[in-house]
Amino acid sequence: MTFEELHIDEKLLEAISYMKFEKASPIQEQAIPLALEGHDVLACAQTGTGKTATFLIPILQDLIQNEAHGLTSLIIVPTRELAIQIDQELQGFSYFTDTTSKAVYGGDKGMDWDEQKRAFTEGTNVIIATPGRLIAHLRLGYVNLRHIRHLVLDEADRMLDMGFIDDIRQILGYIPIKRQTMMFSATMAPEIRKLANTILVNPKMVSIAIAKPAEGVTQSAYMAHPYQKVDLITHILEQNPDYDSILIFTSTKRMIHSIVSAIKKKIRNVTAEGISSDFEQNEREEVLLRFKAKQTKILVATDVLSRGIDIKGINLVINFDVPKDPADYVHRVGRTARADAKGEAVTFISESDILRFKKIEALIERPVNKLPLPAELGEAPVWKDVLPKPQRNHKKRNNHSRHKHFHHGKPKGKGENK
Question: pLDDT band at residue 409, thresholds of 50, 70 and 90?
Answer without folding.
Answer: very low
